[in-house]
Amino acid sequence: MNITMILTAMGMVAMMSSPAFSNEPTTGLEVMKLVEARDDGKDLTQKMMQRLVDKRGNVRERRLITFSKDYGLDSKSVSYFLSPANIRDTSMLTWDYADEAKDDDQWLYLPALKKVRRISSSDRGDYFMGTDFTFEDIKATPELGDYNWTLMGSEMLDGKDVWVVEAIPKSKQLMKDLGYSKVVYHVRKDIDMYIKVDFWDRKGRELKHLISTGITQIDGIWTATGGVMKNVQTNHRTELVFSEQEYNTGLSDRMFTERMIKRGYRGK
Amino acid sequence: MHKLFNWILEHPKTILFLLFVLTAMAVNQMRAIHIETDTDAMLPKHSAAYINKQVLDEKFGSSDLVIIGIINEKEGVYNKHTLSLVQELTDWLGEQPLLRTLALNDLLSLATIKDIRGSASGLDVEPFMDGVPETQEEIDFLKQRMREFGIYEDVIVSADGVGTVLAVRPQPNARETYAEIYDLVKNKVEALEARGGGEEFFISGRPVIEGVFGVYMPQEMKRMQPIIFALLILLLYISFRTPRGVGLPLLTVLIAEIWTIGTMAWLGFSIYTITTMLPILIMAIGIADAVHFLSRERLLAHHTEYAHRKERIVEVMHELWKPMVMTSVTTGVGFLSMLSSDLPPIREFGIFAAIGIAYALIVTMMLFPAALMLLSEKVDHADRKPLFIDYVEWSSKAIIAYPKRIMAFFAVLVVVSVYGATLIKVDASMVAQFKPDDPVRHADTVLNKHFAGTTSLDIMIDTGKENGLLEPEFLQKIVDLQTEIEKNPIVGDTSSIAEFLMIMNKALNEDDPAFYRVPDSSDLAAQYLLLYSFSGAPDDFEKFMTSDYRQAHVVINMRSDSTDAVATILNDLQAKTDVWFPESEGYKVDWAGTGYTLDALAKMIIDGQITSLALSILAIFLLCWIMFKRLLIAFIAMIPVSLAVTVNYGTMGNLGIPLDLATALVGSMALGIGVDFAIHYLHRYHEESIANNSYEESVINTNRSVGHAILFNTIVVVGGFLVLLSAALYPQMKLGALIAATMIICYFATVYLFPVLLGLGKEKIKV
């Protein structure tokens, strides 16, 4: 649960040529398995800009540079804040485990305190870093076993043919943990990437909309270079812009250690 | 005028049809009337208190929360049963569509608030209660953490551990659901209570208070109306003893009432607590016109022969229209003087009372002639000895025999009243409008006893620059300000972003108490908040600061909403914030919240009171001068009402009845109604004088005719307003009692003091 996930969620990678199913999927679960079965590269370096826009239009902007790398099913990532000035050089290290039973590890280095601090693990429905994304939202694909999936049909969205898949959390407890009673994914058939997600709150009311933008191929990998999550109840929205992506550059393991995040980002 | 009267008499059916259509239209409009219970809406839209409240709600979220208190006197709240109730109620509230429960500050309870803890390696932000604690150790830990954390002590759990509070926000802009929310929560809480256990539940908070008000107001209107009608029927029957004598006046006031409310709805005005008293007022005043018309018509029918009844009715109309218009104008002017108030409820009360009185006059002049033309002519009832005639005759004798005693009595009354008037207080408290045994007021009292208080006072400080509130100097000033405010015993608690930053500072320094202070640098504060955002929700601090870290919000909870308490704190603090956060350094301090609103309301009540009273005295005096064409008589005409008004304020002061939105109306109302008595009396006395009667004869004759009419009028007005004593809300009760008392004084001053004053001097005063 970390920046890697934002990256994978937003900068989704699809293998054009080899879908997991040779035939058109017939169930919602099959569609989501296609989404899950994507290769997102071995590692990724990119810059991200977060724009938090409140209901009055006040904007808070942050810039980060992030490095992430896969370790089998686990992954590690490091992010450095570049701006605003008062949090510059604050950095974050995350070790993300595929094992459900194991909590992720997360550290933050605060330059003003000159100390590295561990961050307690969060619940899936908790909001992330003041954005409109919850920890659940920033995963590349949701935990398929937690929902009942239904393929609602196909439609045209922005000129693209998409599957519409509805996800209902399997239990009341899950609904409470996730904060959603229903989620609907719009998955592009050509690249197995969801480009629009709608969320309904626990009371069954329309809550949020996620829209991916600027979908292009980078280093041969399909990537969304922008995304907007808008909460229609609070009228707060989060805009993300990704740039300078570089896939599979062979990042060294040394980058993903406490010692390194204390040093700060030195540029290239 | 004659032409108009003749036209009315020649087209009775058209007139009745017209009245019917207009009334039907008004009834149709009435259904759309809106009831306003929002205290802030009672302030003028341009006032600082109104504007600041809107700004506060927009920037920091509405502070109007439904508060549910759970008190367990025997075991306290730290036990499994009570905590499981807290959890259950929290979950239930989270599912209610009428409530907004998106963020932490939307639903605050032991089951939602978050602990910020330091550990050897970092910072933990976790709910104090993650589900209901299973073991005694877990419960003890919870208790210990709440105490150490401090911020929520007295706010969520009482310092003595006996009670806990859940606070939840209604959906925004859904004021009309407040009553429904109260019922919903009440039913749930009753169901929980019915299961047994040592817990008692209390529901309060501004949405509840305002919601209940909104329910009480129309209920009370509907309940009291029939009682007043019954009373009127009785009085009218005693006076006239014919069906039309009862029916026509009743119909007149009813139509005038419906037209008034219909006009309000049509023009888009809302009903406030005090405007619910309009129907009763219109009834009490409007009946006078009807009674005068009927009395005169009867008298003429009895004594004079007319070729046709049409001529007789024209005669009545011709005789009466001038005095009726005169008295309606003076009464109307009394009410219109309320326009000088800044407060919409008072202004609207004045306007629509004046409109209602005009309607009553118009309806009387249309309905009576038309109806009398259509109803069959009946042989008049034999002369009956008028009721109270013995008393009236006795009073005339008493006036002539004991002028000095009468003077002495009124002199003493004035002295006592003037003294009382100096003691008068203002109170705009919402809660004080409920009776002490009302569940809402009781709940509020209990919650104020155990917790930080249900009345909010808010300070919004704009530092003038982005990230300004992160500066250590600024944060320290906030801390000092809070320390200063909390010295006042009426303040239960204060909170601000500074407290949270201090806790984080301590948590990130190995929980070392020495670090329980504001962060050393602006950057450090920014980094703490970033760190917090990884574990907490983005809007956890939305209540305390804007997202650009420019404006801070200090929340003050007070245990009382009495105007005295609020005014003292405000005066004290405003002086200090001016020094600590000077405008010259770019700061801007704004106040808001229930406390501030009520303080503004109180100030406007006093200001409006003084100007409207002065205006109405002046206007009515000028009208009297124009009518009687003599300055001295105009002065004398003002005496009974001035006396009655003085006694009104004296009584309030002496009995400790505070000046509030409702009682503030009494002065001008009494002036407007009471001056009619004087005008009628002086008119008659004038007639008697020019008929060359002696002083004594004039007094006796005037008393016999006008004195009797005034007595009837007084009984109707007093009776009508005394029905308000049965109201569920204090403002209506107080207003009813005060008007009744004032009218009685007015009656006595007119009938007893007037003749004594007119008898002063060797030559007696000629009118």
Describe the structure.
The complex is a heterodimer of chains A (268) and B (767). The model of chain A is unreliable at 1-5 and 7-21 (pLDDT under 50). With 268 residues, chain A is mainly β. Chain A has a single domain, classed as outer membrane lipoprotein receptor (LolB), chain A. Chain A contains 4 helices and 13 strands. In chain A, strands 6-5-4-3-2-1-13-12-11-10-9-8-7 form a 13-stranded antiparallel sheet. Chain B has 767 residues and is an alpha+beta fold. Chain B has a domain at 2-31 and 211-422 and 599-758: Multidrug efflux transporter AcrB transmembrane domain (Multidrug efflux transporter AcrB transmembrane fold), CATH 1.20.1640. Chain B contains 23 helices and 13 strands. Chain B has helices at 2-10, 12-30, 48-60, 80-95, 136-149, 178-194, 206-240, 243-266, 278-303, 309-336, 344-374, 389-401, 403-422, 439-450, 472-486, 497-507, 522-535, 563-580, 594-628, 631-655, 666-690, 695-722, 730-758, and strands at residues 34-35, 66-71, 99-100, 107-108, 114-118, 122-127, 163-170, 200-204, 270-271, 455-462, 491-495, 551-558, 588-592. In chain B, the strands form 4 sheets. In chain B, strands 2, 3, 4, 7 and 8 form a 5-stranded antiparallel sheet that branches. A 4-stranded antiparallel sheet of chain B has the order 11-12-10-13. In chain B, strands 1-9 form a two-stranded parallel ribbon. In chain B, a hairpin with a 3-residue loop joins strand 5 and strand 6 (122-127). In chain B, helix 2 (12-30) packs across helix 8 (243-266) and helix 8 runs antiparallel to helix 11. The longest helix of chain B is centred in the N-terminal third of the chain and has 35 residues, at 206-240. Chain B is elongated. Chains A and B meet through strand 5 and strand 6 of A and helix 4, strand 6 and helix 17 of B. Strand 6 of chain A pairs parallel with strand 6 (122-127) of chain B.
